[in-house]
Amino acid sequence: MSDGSLEKLLHQESHKQFQWPLKDALEKRLQEKLSAKQSFEEKRVQLKKCGFLCDFVISVWYEIHKLFKTDPELVEANVLRILDQSAFLMAGLLKYKNFEAFENGMSSALSMSLRGLERETLLQTASRIASSLREVGVNLHESLEHDMSAETIWEFLNTTAMTLLKELDVKKIRLGYLWDSSRVRECDSDSEANLLFYGILERRISLIRKIVEENRRKLMSHYANFSANVLYISPLKSVPEGRTIHVTFSEKFSKNISSKIITKAVVLSKIERPPYEYFTWVPLKTNYKVNDTDLRNEPISLPILEDSVQIEVYTKLLEQDSPLIDSDLFPQKSSRLNTERISLTDKLFCICYELTCFILEKTSPVSKDREFTYSSVCEETYLPLKGTVPKNLSLTAEDPAIAFIHSRLLDGSNFMNRSFQRIDSCSESFEQVQDLGAVLRKWFCRKCYTYACGEHLPMEVFLPQKFFNMAYEANNTPFLYPPCRNGCIFNVEVPSWGVSRCHDWTNEDIITLQSFLRVFGSSWCDMATVFFQKHSCYECAFFAESNSLFRKRVTKKNGQRKKNQSNRKSTVTLMDHIHCSHDDDCNSENCSCKKGELYCEKYCPCHSFTQGNCRNRAICCSCKGGKCLNGQCPCFKENRECDPDRCSCFARFRTEGMWDESKSTCKNVGIRTKAHKRLFIAPSDYHERGWGLFTTEPIEKYEFICEYKGELVSLDECERREKSYQAITDMTFVFKKGEVHIDATRKGGKARFANEPGTKALPNCYSCYKRTMGDLRVGIYADRNIQAGEEILFKYEC
Ligand SMILES: C[S@@+](CC[C@H](N)C(=O)[O-])C[C@H]1O[C@@H](n2cnc3c(N)ncnc32)[C@H](O)[C@@H]1O
Predict the structure, then answer these.
(1) Which of 341-345, 396-400, 501-505 shows the lowest mean pLDDT across its residues?
(2) Is residue 243 assigned to a domain?
(3) Number of neighbours of residue 59 by Cβ within 10 angstroms
(4) Positive or negative torsion for Cα 5, 11, 14, 16
(5) pLDDT digit string (tens) for 668-680?
(6) What CATH number does the domain containing 702 carry?
(7) How many domains does the chain have?
(8) Is cis: bond before 235, omega within 30 of 0?
(9) Gap between the Cα atoms of 305 and 524, Å rounded
(10) Rounded to whole angstroms, how far apart are CA atoms 389 and 493?
(11) Which of 239, 304, 460, 587 could disulfide-link to 561, CB 3.0 to 4.6 Å?
């Protein structure tokens, strides 16, 4: 790098104005590059990628910039590591269909990349960056579905329209909301509702195709005489509102129109986009727990994304009980973007440009002799050359930043593996391992067995004293993980503990093991993986037991756990099951589960102490046929979802450690297995000028449709929020039933769009809460057979 390190450059450049046009230019340039592509499909995909890549690059740099603002020295010291992190994100993005892995890996990658800082700083920084980047990730995920350029959308619309017109006469297909927010509805007097909706997403096309397949015979006879090869619908682009139009077939690009009026349509008046200030919402994978708002100390959580609204404003709201002036609470989005988003500096732009081209073109890394100058980028992208920019600014493959990013990108998918290698090599510094352990421990969820699940609060890892029983128990009570290899602790039928098969344990190994005990609890196989098989799971378990490594931990942590529990009492309690913590048989004195009239779940430590015979153990079922859809199933009766690990209804087939879900017939595991139906959002038939939730596939009676996800709040918080929402809108997205309070206003799933039937119809669904993995969750279930295209309606209160 010609003028100093990247850190220095970032530091110097970070306060410059953000140049938003750079993004446009980048996007434009990339689109031009792609215009030569032959296949439409290929082009479309590339364009889509192009759009979100640009956004993404900017988002990542924006996050870095935010850090600059708050902790300049921190970032300066770690900027390369954050770049590393960004590259990892990029890699995850490229295979974005595996978004879950991308998100989970992010936290882990973060903790790796920030290693070496003070422990406290590390924890704080990792959590702060992870949460903001997760937000970016979630938004990104959204944009993958929706953010397409106008041309792309337009071209896509045309294709869809052609498909539709070829195969018209399919009744009442809803294809989701349109980007121009208008509804086009056929008003032919003969047929009540022929379609004229254009889908913009692939999945909608596939829906059409599916329905068309089902109606093929009818369609064939209808259009048997129609011979045009390429069809195109006219007019499409701008139709005056409220006017009846003729929809015609004609041959594309042919001025000699031999069109045929096939139907009349009316363009309904525009449906306004919901004002984003009130309705911006982040899609959630799982429920999100929030603590009660502390009115004295913290900014209030109002129904607005990303805004921290000062307490005075909130107090004003409560006192005046009057509608708020938007600008008081909700700064305009555009101004926020323009003024706060800073930081694609010239040099960084070059990097991003190079990086993005690299990804899109899938070229080999930049050749060494290629020089990449700011002016050459400007020429290519029609950017103005600014006087302040050094004209000879150049980046080559030797540039550490470029090389670094490329090396990460080239092998992004193996990043996690390499992270493990790093852990291994980390044994030179015990403190680092311990720091790492602390971070991992914080992020690792014992309920979900994933990193930073976002669903559960960090759980104190409780290490069972009699863990050896687990090896025996493995034959009866399956574990989440399959045996890791031959000789795995869970494969040993009668453990011969007296025989040591341990390799030598160095001091480093012991400290690492201690660290891992806190992270992984008794997941010995995981430890073995992270140890890179230097020590097997058997050896880890044996060594930990014979040296009483975990007992100390249990004693040490008891006090802390009590403290945590009492903290959490103030907020969501019943919904969020906390494992008990005692080392003898459960009774109402010692067992928090029993006291709360809850069952002990399988992750409660008492199961290990009592060899799986805890008297307060959660019920399981062995229903024949695996239906579990009525009161004869004990799980169903108790509003519990069946447990694939314990209920025998679920037909737990294992093939090389994977669940074979095709053989599982149980229908009482919808929430846990995320077996939701394919749904989409479109203008509602019941809520005038509002949105509704529709199904793309037929649903059978009692089947699980989707989970009502949102922020889990306490009753107090729920009431407080409702009050603030009422001041803004008459709509409510809060689900209240018994102990369950879910606020889907700012964060939620598609279920937040489900309407009530009102007086026009009967509900076709019902809501029901289920205890799933200990926690209370709310599912929407079909009350009758539902056809594809129907709106999902359920009574909010019953
Ligand atoms: C959870 S939201 C449903 C989504 C909402 N339709 C939208 O456009 O975002 C619930 C709100 O929708 C409105 N709503 C739901 N069902 C309705 C109906 N049958 N008639 C009128 N408004 C309805 C009410 O304002 C209610 O508070």
Answers:
(1) 341-345
(2) yes
(3) 22
(4) negative
(5) 888 877 788 888 7
(6) 2.170.270.10
(7) 2
(8) yes
(9) 41
(10) 70
(11) 460
Last residue of one domain, picked from the residues 267, 296, 315:
267
Q: Nearest residue CA, atom 18 of ligand 1?
A: 687
The residue type of 266 is: V
Closest CA to ligand 1's atom 27: 731
Q: Whose CA is nearest to atom 24 of ligand 1?
A: 731
What ipTM, to 2 d.p.?
0.99
pLDDT in tens, 674-721: 788 888 777 778 887 677 888 888 898 888 999 998 888 888 888 877
DSSP of 153-169, one letter per residue? HHHHHHHHHHHHHHT--
Work out which ligand 1 atom sits closest to the CA atom of 744. 1
131 DSSP 8-state letter: H
Mapped onto helix, strand or coil, the DSSP state of residue 693 is strand
Give the residue from 736, 769, 733, 776 showing the smallest Cα distance to 282. 733
Q: At what angle do helices 99-113 and 72-94 cross, to 10 degrees?
A: 150
CA proximity to 122, closest of 81, 66, 61, 62? 81
Looking at 267, 287, 317, the residue that finishes a domain is 267
User: Residue 738 is part of which domain span?
Assistant: 679-782
Which of 358-367, 370-379, 380-389, 759-768 is modeled with the greatest confidence? 759-768
Q: With respect to residue 650, please indicate whether it lies within any of the assigned structural domains.
A: no
* Nearest residue (CA) to ligand 1, atom 26: 731
**Relative orientation angle of helices 400-410 and 72-94, to the nearest 10 degrees:** 40
Is 408 inside a domain boundary?
A: no
Strand partners, 755: 793
Helix (H) or strand (E) holding 777: strand 775-782
Kindly provide the b/e burial profile for residues 440-474, where b requires at least 16 CB atoms within 10 angstroms of the residue's own CB. bbbbbbbbbebbbbbbbbebbbbbbeebbbbbbbb
Residue 136's SS3 state is helix
582 contacts 590 by C-beta, under 8 angstroms? yes
Q: What are the angstrom distances between the C-alpha of 255 and each of 250, 251, 258, 261, 464?
A: 9, 8, 9, 16, 80
- The label of the residue with tokens 């480093």 reads 508
At CA 792, angle to CA 786 and CA 798, rounded to 5? Answer: 105
- Residue 669 C-alpha to ligand 1 middle, in angstroms? 28
Distance 675 CA to ligand 1 centre (A): 25
Q: How far is CA 650 from CA 449, 450, 655, 667, 779, in A?
A: 20, 22, 15, 9, 19
